[in-house]
Amino acid sequence: MKRPEEKVEKLREEIRKHEYHYYVLDDPLISDAEYDGLMMELRQLEESYPELLSSDSPTQRVGGQPRPIFGSVTHRLPLLSLDNAFSYQDLKSFDQRLRKELGELTYMAELKIDGVSIALVYEQGVLINAATRGDGMVGEDVTSNIRTIKSVPLRLNKELPRVEVRGEIFMPKREFLRLNKEKEEKGEKLFANPRNAAAGSLRQLNPKITAGRALDSFIYDIMHLEGKDIFSQQEALQFLKEAGFKVNPQAKYCQDIEEVIQYIETWVEERHSLPYEIDGVVVKLNPYAGRQKIGQTVRSPRWAVAYKFPAEEAETRVLEVEVNVGRTGIIVPTAILEPVFIAGTTVSRASMHNFDLVAEKDIRIGDRVLIHKAGDIIPEIIKSLPHYRSGQEENILPPDRCPACGSTLVRLDGEVAWRCESISCPARLKESIVFFASRGAMDIEGLGPAIVEQLVNRGMVSQIADLYKLDLEAVAALDRMGKKSAQNLLQAIEKSKKQPLHRLLTALGIRHIGARSARLLTQNLSHIEDFFAVSEEQLAQIPEIGPIMADSIVKFFAEPRNRETIALLQEQGVNMSEPKALTREMPLLNKTFVLTGTLQAMSRQQASEAIEKLGGKVSSSVSKKTDYVVLGESPGSKYDKALGLEIKILDEEEFLKQLAQWQQSI
Ligand code: IVH
To answer: What region, left, alpha or beta, does residue 298 occupy, with left being phi > 0 and alpha being psi -120 to 50 degrees?
Structure first.
């Protein structure tokens, strides 16, 4: 039998190897499930032997609490930036300058990754610090966020006393598009490009959020190395790779500047086929000896230069605006454009995401506009070009009603998006039903997206309530269905009629109302009709229900189409109330109160009666069993005793507020 230390270390090594193959080399050796199995085994071992835990264990990427602010880090060596070259002529002048001083030379040409510059410090092979570039001298300590990026090794393959490297954290195009889509559906502001998205994700105070964004890294520079000599950039990249870093595979050794220019020409053409964005090519003098000779200014080294690609932008005209309803009910304005060729394709439409953005950019129908492709893929209007205006241009305003179903559009506090509030809107219907049937909602087993797709497409369901009218024969005739599974499905649908109100409330998919808040709500409002009448103020009285939720609930129930959907569900026999056992009928059951001092709003007698009506008891002396002490004016020694026992103390105002809530909940 191996000792646990050995077992843990062996497992870690094994996992590190697989992470390296998966995240750095993009060439996994085992399946995800096998990898998960190894991780699980390690986690269990570490749980059994907590003394073996160490911060460079693969299980420790996401840890720690959200922090209030980032600390600052003074870089040991300044993180320089680069001079730019915008033409081949600029590059040739750079080359001439270097050759004049050095004679023979060679270059490394590397892709200029459009991300966020970072510096990493490893001691004895273990990552101890990660910082942003900041102003070059002082950056922000983003160690706990960087640790969540799987291609950044927590431990190197080489145990050197100290290694300081520099590289770029970036967001792959796919992840950027996914994230923005998610943001659009949530009605949030979008990131302008993958670089901003990477920067925004790195600057999250909660590392769990960073961990949820698929950030990636390329390391390209050794700033400081103890224990080994390196003589050129080419060797440096090789060393970085061997140490376990992800190094960009497209870096190329070039004999002269002509070869560098060839490299640039290739990548101007090929850049769109890369899974990440680049904004140029970095040209670096290869031999380190030459670098020393050439030196640097305070701002940038003289031995390197960044060739910037021309921005890929084009001018065109907005012909008209189409307003679409997304699958979650979000209203998205799309500009129809005069077709124009840009970054490899002809573009004739561009999403404008939301009407705030249209107003912010002051885009009008008939305007000439400048466009580009966000994340190299999604056509987007950068800005309008007002000097071309003739005066005939038309403003673009949100419609009053949903273009798909005619419901009123609403916008919730803090969101940029307008939404159709009707859950039965044809544009939202499929999504609404899938959610309605989901596990945490009405829990209708077997009613997944594929079936819903068919039910809606075949016109069998055009309203959520139609689910309860389905015909066995027709269901059995669906693709991948049979008599037996149709019977099961109808049974599951039938069974869902009995679900308690909190599940129905969750199933309605009201923005910001999840399963937990639905439960809290139905403990206070136990029939659906209570929701038709409730005000924002009343809702805000319920513990944990904030103003955003209250706003959302009121707007949802104000929409006549939602009331109609609920009425139709009720007609079909769907339960509309919370069973008594689930409401806290006696909210103060088993709770003991002690009153001390004089209350202003009511007599002691009245207060006692109110408490007892809610199931509570009033006692005359404070003990460990006391749950609440209510504090009137000039309280006696009971107050001191309560303080000593750390009993919950309510002053009169708090008591009255609580009392109102408790009363409401029955
Ligand atoms: S070398 C002293 N190499 O571009 C060495 N920089 O405009 C300086 N960048 O701040 C950096 N890819 O954030 C280097 N392959 C690459 C790069 C790269 C992207 C960024 C880096 C730097 C900026 C300079």
So the answer is: alpha
How far is residue 403's CA from residue 490's CA, in Å, rounded to a whole number?
Answer: 33
Query: Is any atom of ligand 1 closer than 6 Å to the C-beta of 220?
Result: yes
* Strand order from edge to edge, sheet including 378-384: 345-351, 331-342, 314-325, 368-374, 378-384
CATH 3.30.470.30 fits 72-308, yes or no: yes
Predicted local confidence at residue 457, as pLDDT? 92
CB of residue 301 inside a 6 A radius of ligand 1: yes
Q: Are 585 and 443 a contacting pair, CB within 8 Å?
A: no
pLDDT at position 666 over 70: no
Q: In the structure encoding, which two tokens stand for residue 624, read together? A: 């460990």
Which sequence positions are flagged as catalytic? 112
Residue whose Cα lies nearest atom 13 of ligand 1: it is 117
Tell me yes or no: is domain 4-60 CATH 1.10.287.610.
yes
| For the chain, percent of residues with pLDDT exceeding 70 | 98
Domain ranges of the chain: 4-60, 72-308, 314-395, 409-581, 585-664
Which single residue is written with the structure tokens 């190395």? 225
Q: Is the CB of 95 under 6 A from ligand 1?
A: no
How many C-beta atoms surround the C-beta of residue 447 within 10 A? 21
| Contact yes or no for 348/337 (Cβ under 8 A) | yes
593: which 2 tokens? 């109160």
Predicted TM-score (pTM) of this structure: 0.72
- Render pLDDT for 642-655 as a digit per residue (tens, 0 to 9): 888 888 999 999 99
Q: Is 8 helix (H, G, I), strand (E, B) or coil?
A: helix
Q: Under a CB-based contact definition with an 8 Å cutoff, are residues 581 and 501 in contact? A: no
585 Cβ partners below 8 Å, 6+ apart? 615, 666
pLDDT confidence bin for 581, thresholds 50/70/90: low
Calculate helix-pair angle for 560-571, 547-558, nearest 10 degrees.
Answer: 70
CB atoms < 10 A from the CB of 207, how many?
Answer: 22
List phi, psi (to 5°) of 52.
-90, -5
Q: Which atom number of ligand 1 is nearest to the Cα of residue 306?
A: 7
Which class does domain 409-581 fall in?
mainly alpha
pLDDT tens digits along 90-102: 999 999 999 999 9
| Nearest of 407, 406, 384 to residue 396 by alpha carbon | 384
